[in-house]
Every structure is written in C-alpha cells, then in structure tokens.
Amino acid sequence: MNIQNTTPIQGNKSKYRGRKIAAYAGLAIGVIIIGCIVTLLLLPDSFYDGFLREKVMQAFHTAYPAYTLTISKVHYKVVENRIECDSVSLTANDSSFTGSISSMSLSGIKRMSLFRPERIASDILANSVIDVKNIVLDIPQSQYEFQCTRLRLSVPDSTVSIDTLELDPLADSAQAEGGMKASCTMTSFSARHVGWVQIIRAKRIDTSCFLHATIAAKNILADFPKSQYEFSCVDIAVSVPDSAITADSANIQPVQDDAKYFAGSNTRKTRFIADVPECRISGADCFAFFRQSMYRARCVHIRNASLGVLINKDKPEKTDRTKPPMPYELLNLCKAPLQIDSVEFSDGTLRYSERYVMTEQAAEFTADDLQILVQGIANRTGGAAATVIHAHGDFMHAGTMNMLVEIPVASPAFTMHYSGTTSKMDMTQINTWLVPGEHKRVTSGELQSSKFNINVVNGKANGTVQAIYSNLDIAVLDKKENGGGLFEQLSSFMARTFKIRGTNQPDKSGAMKIGVVKYAKKPDDAFFQFVWVALRGGICDIVGANF
After folding, report:
1. How far is CA 544 from the centre of its chain?
2. What distance in Å separates the CA atoms of residue 308 and residue 500, rounded to the nearest whole number?
3. Is residue 386 classed as helix, strand or coil in its secondary structure?
4. Which helix (H) or strand (E) holds 250?
5. Cα-flanking dihedrals φ and ψ of residue 287, to 5°?
6. Whose CA is closest to 56, among 43, 45, 67, 69?
7. Which residue did the predictor score with more confidence, 399 or 205?
8. How many beta carbons lie within 10 A of that of residue 241, not counting itself?
C-alpha cells in the first residue's frame, strides 16, 4: 500500500517545481524588460543624440544620395515614441537649393527601424507624422526663396498642411532687377488623400499619387511690381476625383490708386480692375493641367463678376507701343492645347472709361446684368469649328442689347462675324460717353430698335446697321479754359446743331436708310476698339454725323 502511494506524490512535486521555475523565469524576464524600459527612460539625451543622429543622416544619404542632411541635435521621447531634431539643414549636392529648419519632430515611428540603419529613412518617413517649423528654402536657379512657419505631414492619413507660406525673390536677384520680381503669400495650404507612402518609397512624384487628392489654399496674395498689379483670392480648392476647381473672392487690381498708377508714366496706360466673387470649373483635366500638357475643362461658371477699364487719354501714346493682340493671337500664346467647352458669365458688370482731362469726368460706357455664354474655346483645330459668344445685358442703363460673336478656331488672320439687336431706349443716356469723349450731346432722341450684322475677313469689316428712331438732335459743345481746368458749355443750339437725319422710320414700302459698315483694322486697334469703331461707322452713315 505505502509503495503504491509514493509515485503520485513524487509526480506532484515535479509539477510544482516546474511551475516554480517558470514563475521565476517569467519574473526575471519581466524584471529585465522593466529594467530595459527604465534604462531607456533614464538614459541621458546625449545617448540618443549620439546613437540616432549619425544613423539618420547616413541612412538618409543612402536613400537620397543627391541630398545632404545635417542635424544639429536629436532627442528621442520614449513614452511618446517621438524623435525631435534641432536645427536641420538639407542641401542639394548640385547646389540647386539649400534649406533649413529650426525644429522637426517625427512621431508614430517603428521602434525596430531605429536598429536597422538600411530602413531608417523609408520606414520612419512612411509611417510617421512629421511636424516641421520655420522652413526656409533657397532656390538660386529660380532666384526665389520659400518660407513657411509650419508644415505637418501625416503619412498614414495621406494629408499635409502648411501655415503661412511666402515666396519671395532672393535679395540679390531683387536688387538686380530693381525690386521688380513677383512675390506670393498665402495663410494656409492643405492636401488630402495624397499617396505619400508611394512618393517616399518610389523617390519620385507620379500623377497616380494624386488620383484621390483634394487641395485647398486660402488667402492668396501675389504681387507683380513690374506691372504694378496684385492678385488676391480668399479660397482656391481643387478636387482631382471630382475634376473640379473652385475659386472664391478673386481680384486683380493695381497696387496703388488711379492717381499714383497713372502718375508713374509719362505716356498713356490702361488700368484694369477685375473682381470675381465666385468661379466654378467642372470637368477639369487636373493631371494634364499640372503637367502643362493640355488645358481642358468642360464648363467654367463665373457669377457676379465685374470688370473696370480706364484709359488716361490725357497723355500721349507710347511711340514703341506693341500691337494689341487679337483673340486668336491670345489663344495661340498658350503653347499647350487649350479646350474649354463653355464659359458662362452670369450677372456681370462692365465699366469702360476714357479720361481726356485729369480733373474732369471720364467718358463712360456701361453694361450691367450681363449674361454671357462662350462656347468652343480652343487654340487647335479638331474641336469646335468656331468660338461662339452669346451676350445679353443692360446697355448704358437705357435698354437691352443682344449680341452674337463667332470667331473661327485657330484662324491665321483676324476673321470673325458679329451681329446684334437693341431694344427701345432713350438716346440721351449715351451722353455719359459722348460729352466727355466726343464733346457732343444728344439733346433728344428715342430709339425704337436697331440691329447690325458685320463680317470681318483679314481685318476688314463689312456689314450693315439698321436703326429705327425719331426726334434725334445732337449739339456740339464748346471747350473753354477756366482756372486751369476744362469745362464744356452747350453752344447756341440753332447755330451749332448738326445737320443730321433726325428721324429714320420705314416708309410705306418699308424702306429706310441703312448704314453701311466699311472699316479696315489699324495696327494699333484693340479688339473691342475695332468692334466699336466699325459699328460706329454704320451708325454715323445713318445719322449723317461723325461722332
């Protein structure tokens, strides 16, 4: 009996000793792990600096041999699993650029990568959140310097955000060109859903990395000292998946007011002010746009835009003035193929003014409530045969005008067709243009309707103008000196009234005077000037007076 009971007791003692050994071993391993953690936590910062700094710089050079990375000091936060770097510089070996950073941190690091030098660069960058402050990047070839206060790149989230960007000319280049180089600033820039892992590991940027990207920039301001203009925009957004580009509150205007803008030149200048509260582009080929291989969009919609134009004709023209470009010449300036199916302007405003005396009111032409549809914009054949423009608006606050313009695509010469109609209007409303510009005044007159049809071939306009009106009187204005200024005074009506056709109504047979348009483009004619001068010739042929 006693012999039989001895074996189970010995077996239980063996199991107990095995469990005890396992417990001690686990405790020992736990103590070792805790000891390692405590050691890592208590290690001086200089240890991590000496261990990581050279490894990171060497690994970066191995991964990107065309660049040299220099780090002043490296800190490693064990608990946060974050590397912090002080005073970082990055230089291209070909001196194409130099960059500096005041501080940089990398979090979300694979700790084991720190012990594998050959994978430090790719693994750290491909799985980290990078936070960089006070970036300065000099690009001697372009003679520009890029700065930003903060850049945050989250590779796992495929996002990047930049605060307070500035693009300024380098000091030497700015002085060499008399401070005439452009500059640009924006308060923020962000890009989402970009394939940063693919970019980092492939070491190049491919369009496939932006298949799902959305880009946004806010409060953009670009200054162009040479032209004395600035461009501003509150918000620009690009969505590659939606093929859409939007811009809000865009504006182009001179940096200075009109007096200072015109005072800077002894010759005639043209001042533009363009304001676009809302612009939407759909069907945009974003990839082709970024590659500059083609500019393609299905539709551009611009709302509530306004354009103001002022020419100071109180000064002489430049003797070496370049020839104003025609529409086909402007399109051909774009070297890459350009194709936009339609551009729609809704509720637009136009103010065109010519100033003949600095202290006097400028001659002004106005068009309000403009609805314009432009179809088939292109600079290559193969798409639409012609660019077609439909326009409707309030003309000089007096009546409505409808206009159709057709311009052949990629025409080698200035060729076009334009036609239109006007509604009933009070003709005295055009005095805001005639009195300052032509020194004539419409004292009375009522237009029932008018229409025009003009063809232009190789810069020569031919066509007709029909106008039904009554009780038209036009008087000449005297110009007299008065204290250094000019004023107009209506002269004796009976002595100076034009001998004009005061009424043009169809007779019983329906016949009436039809104006003939015949005008050849002059070398210095701008597009809208040519259109108006040719049309005015037909109006003068009906009225019997040149104005």
Report:
1. 47
2. 33
3. strand
4. strand 244-254
5. -60, -45
6. 69
7. 399
8. 12
